[in-house]
Amino acid sequence: MAWQFYLFVCLFVYVCARVHTSASENGLLESALFPPVDSRDGAQVIRPGNRDFYLVLGCGSIAQAVLSREKAGGIITINIGFATAVVMALYVTFGVSGGHINPAVSFAMCTFGRMEWFKFPFYVGAQLLGAFVGAATVFGIYYDGLMAFADGKLLITGENGTAFIFATYPKPFVSVPGAFVDQVVSTMFLLLIVFAIFDSRNLGVPRGLEPIVIGLLIIVISCSLGLNSGCAMNPARDLSPRLFTALAGWGFEVFTFGNNFWWIPVVGPMIGAVLGGLIYVLFIQMHHSNPDPEVKAEPAENNLEKHELSVIM
């Protein structure tokens, strides 16, 4: 069947990526591709794809609510499900590669000099791949339910629409400028607060509790700014599942719907991430005082690099 083929292809590509990762970790490919760097770099570049399997739990929470016609879930369970999925993903992988699962966050880290630019395309490629495989997995798990939901039809909108299980779509009343501002502002708040979480010269968060605080942050942003278009805040979380639905049977209308809305969750978060980081640096970080002039305080950016600032939905 079609869904089995798509799932097989996705899993095959993912396994190939993991084999490539193992080779990189053992030094077979690293010396040929990159100059000598930290031995964990090969893992750090590819492993962001692992975290995007959190989409299995996040999109799965949407699927459960939609396919049960909100008898087994709703907006609260969706927000909690997605946020908790991110928390679990960060706990599993935070110590290895910092849990980078969001191209917008990776872009902001490179922009502020907290990650090398050469890593950026590899991180983004892994994030997109992981999100695609995660969407395919949800499709396979809920294939029977999707077919029964609308008599075998895969619809984008209406009471039997199911495309928004995988990607975000704007409400009918939302304009293109309004949707764009929505994505910029929501991601701006995300990065602004994440910078504070990892700033050792601010209140900070005790080591090991960062993922939980990030999960709470996602919940509050989703509950307050999620009405217009679902509050993606992550280009990989939206673009790869959207591409998967286009190939899986919903058609390429998933890209033209809502006045070609698809680019807004891709571009908006990138701008919002940099804006949020810039606001924190200009208005908070630059005004830190050293409590002991004899002791050089550890720069906040070093703290961020040490913890390999991660995230997010």
3D architecture notes:
With 313 residues, the chain is mainly α. It has a single domain, classed as Glycerol uptake facilitator protein (Up-down Bundle). 65% of the residues lie in helices and 0% in strands. It is built from 15 helices and no strands. The radius of gyration is 20 Å and the shape is globular. GO terms for molecular function: glycerol channel activity; hydrogen peroxide channel activity; urea channel activity; water channel activity. It is a multi-pass membrane protein. It is found in: Membrane. One of its GO terms (cellular component) is basolateral plasma membrane.
- CATH-wise, what's the superfamily? Glycerol uptake facilitator protein
- What is the number of helices? 15
CATH top level is Mainly Alpha
Report the principal-axis shape. globular
What is the CATH fold-level name? Glycerol uptake facilitator protein
> Span from first to last CA?
31 Å
Largest sheet: none
- Low-pLDDT residue intervals, each spanning 5 or more residues: 1-6, 11-43, 292-312
Question: Helix coverage percent of residues?
Answer: 55-70%
Strand content: under 5%
The chain-level structural class is mainly alpha
The CATH architecture would be Up-down Bundle
GO biological process, one term: detoxification of arsenic-containing substance
Family: Belongs to the MIP/aquaporin (TC 1.A.8) family.
Keywords: Membrane, Signal, Transmembrane, Transmembrane helix, Transport
Pfam families: MIP
Short description:
The chain has 15 helices and no strands. It is an all-alpha fold and 313 residues long. The model is unreliable at 1-6, 11-43 and 292-312 (pLDDT under 50).
